């Protein structure tokens, strides 16, 4: 037989309930038996009292007391009453307790065994349980009155054995009621045990405790965010990382996932419960990769499991890597272009056209120097200046001229340099892509100016632009006019990132024209 500690929680609970039920029902049955015994004794005492009063008030009793031999008259009367009332004794006695009658004639003339003083003093309701010549009995002793004077006593009693026989007839009912209660309680306990067995998968308390400890430790240890939703889309569990990534409120548990303050697109996506693999979503300040799978157990749909990965830093690294790659490509292109220009200059000199060689060399140098001077003079953020120079070279390779508007000025400290790179880099990339697909002349223009309260950046291009109806949709995750757009880390997320980066600094971004985007960032006063 297995040890109790090895039993499942359901089995242990059933055994405990069974033991408690048996003990309680045994106590109830005993208490009921004792209560019935007491009730029987009280009822018997009342019955004996009634019979005694009736006999004490009978005229034959008073008349017999005046007879020279009262026993001769009273004994037959008392025996008749005893037999008719199914009592064990009916005794008529003097005030001093000397018997006139008794079921055993040999006891006539002897002293009554029992308490007679209350009745002798005129008390009419005295009863007791006493052991006399016939054994223990429940008896009543009442006075026989003549003109208000006690002239004799009457005692009527029934043996305890007879009272117990009456009680024994009720015991089967008590036992039947107890058995029925036990059966109902056992069935109820079994149903509870069965439900608990299904709920706990027949695991024991130690296993459940160990599982909870591991489960809690894993939830807090994993680096990924974990969100558990029920079938109605309500949040049932969110680990620390999920709360950090989604900025969930403390009372998120039990609320629908689309009602806890998440961005609309993300909340609606999670609330559907559909399977998702590595979808990119934007929160107020993060890029989150979302995967969602249905949760099933035993063929039943329990809800959905959502995993969240923070790709904010990865995206920043990708942006920086693309910038560095752009610089490298720019240097490579410039080196290649410089080699071509050098060969052209040398060839012109060899052909005896020195003046033309000089004009060609200085013209190319002036164009490159003009852009560099405009960038250095107007953009006080080194990272942003380097980005613009690199994008200019990249655009030139693709047949697009990147222009910096006259008077452009971007002061240092207006925003985090990485956010500025994100904003301007994505806008320039989109503009270059659009201009490249447009007919000549192909150009992209960057402008920046400072007002009293803000810095405004504008990026325009010679492309077809964005339709007015799509002005707001353009900033949503996954929207793109480019072929092959997707929800990955590439297409369909650039403008959404621009808006998030601007909002982090209290700024706004808008479509200022069909092919022009404007970003307004408030100045930070020091």
TrEMBL record:
Coiled coil, from the record: none
Keywords noted in UniProt: ATP-binding, Cell membrane, Kinase, Membrane, Nucleotide-binding, Phosphoprotein, Transferase, Transmembrane, Transmembrane helix, Two-component regulatory system
Subcellular location field: Cell membrane
Recorded catalytic activity of this chain's protein: ATP + protein L-histidine = ADP + protein N-phospho-L-histidine
PROSITE patterns the UniProt entry points to: HIS_KIN (PS50109)
InterPro entries attached to this UniProt entry: 2C_sensor_his_kinase, HATPase_C_sf, HATPase_dom, His_kinase_dom, PAS-like_dom_sf, PAS_4, sCache_3, Sensor-like_sf
Primary location group: membrane
Membrane topology, as annotated: Multi-pass membrane protein
E.C. no: 2.7.13.3
Domain of life: Bacteria
Higher taxonomy: Bacteria, Bacillati, Actinomycetota, Actinomycetes, Pseudonocardiales
Keyword Lipid biosynthesis among record annotations: no
Name used for this protein in its record: histidine kinase
One GO MF term: ATP binding
Location of the Histidine kinase domain: 333-525
Transmembrane annotation, as ranges: 12-34, 173-192
